[in-house]
Design goal:
The complex is a heterodimer. Chain A has eight helices and ten strands. By secondary structure, chain A is an alpha/beta fold. A six-stranded mixed sheet of chain A has the order 6-7-8-3-9-10, sandwiched between helices. The longest helix of chain A is centred in the last third of the chain and has 19 residues. Chain A is globular and about 50 Å long. The chains are: A alpha/beta, B mainly alpha.
């Protein structure tokens, strides 16, 4: 398994407020080039879980291994995509993608070719010298995806990457992500609020609940890849979506987390 | 100022709204049409108009006051000529520009590492901030006697007055710039494998540059603002000295000559720093 999470607990403590249990004894394993979606209400700890795996947050207890190595901090074998794109605004599209490659010591002579390859992959081949401020939201996120893929991570961690985009752009980027994933076959952990998006992309959907943050159910999505817009209209898709919906709603109407 | 295509961050696919269309609603009638057209002149037209108006007002006021306390523009123009013919005027300009530039460069250059230390390291904030806040409230004029006692009456104390005045705005701006670096950008660099040194060089420094340059612009104003005070220290040349000497002999037009010259050189230097600012921060989203 590429990502293994064992007994992970994260408690945030602040003065004068009761401690907040963001994650309570969470176990999860995923890998083999699958896409796993994490869905759940706000406060269910999905972003905390992703940040711990990324090495940006220290757990209170429990441990995480990626590719067999214990996580102690961030590293380029774990690519991260942020909802706010997080492109360096003073760098062009090309320079953004080069950033991680240079840190990995990729030789100057090879740099250009590698960057071109990944820009082509996400459909930004015509915009290498453009600054982020001149890109649309969708293009910014595609650039961030190219930047993350360029350093060839073992796993890709995505925190609501399409959350800030309009519905049409979002669908386009979902398709493009499946395309890219089809070529790179990296294990992807994908956080979303959108049940449709989760079912469309993922092989497994991990449903989480809040107070304390925990995994309530893992649902297999039995839809073959490659998936297309036709897949969305199929009965199997609708059935899967209904299953996930029920699971997401159940703890919420039970009075928790509202 | 140029307008960019995006209508604010986060919104995608909106067409930019032309400034004029938003600024005033359509009016009917002759007055309305004149007002509408008046709002669409090139910016240079307003600048020329406002300067002309200023001169007219000055001219009228001078005639109303009429006792030599407020010389009219033409008298000041003659004073410009006689100061120039006196020969020392160019030396005064050179001396002052030299002091301001030297003080500004020293003050700003010293301020940047202090600001970074305060913004980036906890110890930097703890050790430096009390001093910066303390000195910020002390007027430059109050320190002059101490400088004279310590350093005499040469060029050094004069430049020092200006350096101290320029140091403070840039320190505060740089400090704020580092505090304002987007945490997501730092995380993005970390997950791509950047260590602290790389994050500082390639994220923190470029990200705080716009703040630093705003600080430098404010510092430049402070440099000119303290020039006259600096030239209180036994100066024998300079525009501030010219103000004092003219006051001593009641040559009011010459006071105006010095003031106007300071204003124009200050304006020109500010434009230069503003240009650097615009070029260095062209990547910023602007409204």
């Amino acid at each position: 398994m590429d990502i293994r999470v064992d007994g992970l607990t994260k408690i945030f403590t602040k003065a004068r407020t009761p401690p907040f249990v963001a994650l309570d004894d969470v176990d999860l394993a995923c890998g083999g080039g699958e896409i796993v979606a994490l869905v759940g209400p706000s406060g269910c700890g999905k972003t905390t879980l992703l940040n711990v795996i990324a090495g940006l947050t220290e757990p209170t207890s429990g441990h995480v291994t990626v590719d067999g190595v214990a996580v102690t901090g961030p590293g380029p074998e774990r690519g991260v995509i942020f909802q706010q794109y997080a492109l360096f605004p003073w760098m062009t599209v090309r320079e953004n993608v080069e950033f991680g490659l240079r840190l990995r010591g990729v030789r100057r002579s090879q740099l250009r070719g590698v960057v071109d390859h990944y820009l082509e992959l996400v459909g930004l081949g015509d915009f290498p010298d453009t600054l982020p401020k001149e890109l649309s939201g969708g293009m910014k996120q595609r650039c961030a995806i190219a930047r993350a893929y360029a350093v060839q991570p073992v796993v890709m961690l995505m925190d609501e990457p399409f959350g800030a985009l309009d519905a049409m752009t979002r669908v386009t980027l979902q398709e493009q992500l499946l395309d890219t994933w089809g070529q790179e076959r990296t294990t992807i952990m994908f956080i979303t609020h959108d049940v449709d998006e989760a079912v469309y992309l993922a092989r497994r959907v991990v449903v989480m609940a809040s107070n304390p943050g925990r995994i309530t159910k893992i649902i297999d999505v039995d839809l073959p890849y490659p998936r297309t817009q036709e897949t969305r209209l199929s009965e199997a898709f609708v059935a899967s979506r209904a299953t996930v919906w029920r699971e997401v709603w159940r703890p919420m109407v039970g009075g928790e987390g509202l | 100022m140029t307008r960019l295509g995006s209508a604010g961050s986060g919104k995608v696919g909106l067409d930019p709204v032309p400034v004029q269309a938003r600024a005033i609603p359509r009016r009917s009638g002759v007055v309305g049409r004149v007002l509408t057209r008046l709002n669409r002149l090139p910016m240079l037209a307003y600048y020329v108009a406002t300067i002309a108006l200023g001169f007219a007002l000055w001219s009228i006021l001078a005639r109303l006051v009429g006792n030599g306390l407020l010389p009219p523009p033409e008298t000041v123009a003659r004073a410009f000529r006689s100061e120039y013919e006196r020969g020392a005027f160019i030396d005064d300009i050179v001396a002052s520009v030299r002091r301001v530039t030297l003080g500004f460069v020293i003050g700003v250059t010293a301020a940047i590492p202090f600001g970074f230390a305060m913004g980036w390291y906890r110890w930097g904030r703890g050790l430096l901030e009390p001093w910066v806040q303390f000195f910020r409230t002390i007027p430059a004029l109050a320190l002059i006697p101490l400088y004279v006692i310590a350093f005499g009456i040469g060029e050094f104390p004069k430049v020092l007055v200006i350096s101290v005045a320029t140091f403070l705005p840039t320190v505060v701006a740089t400090y704020q710039g580092v505090l304002d670096v987007d945490g997501t950008l730092i995380n993005a660099a970390r997950v791509l494998g950047a260590n602290d040194g790389t994050i500082f060089r390639r994220v923190v420094v470029p990200s705080s540059l716009p703040f630093i340059l705003v600080g430098a612009r404010i510092s430049l104003g402070a440099a000119w603002g303290t020039l006259v005070a600096a030239e209180l220290i036994a100066a024998s040349s300079g525009l501030g000295y010219l103000v004092q000497r003219s006051a001593l002999y009641f040559e009011v037009p010459s006071i105006f000559v010095a003031i106007i010259t300071i204003g124009f050189i200050g304006l020109a230097m500010d434009r230069a720093v503003a240009l650097v600012h615009r070029k260095a921060t062209h990547w910023q989203e602007r409204r």
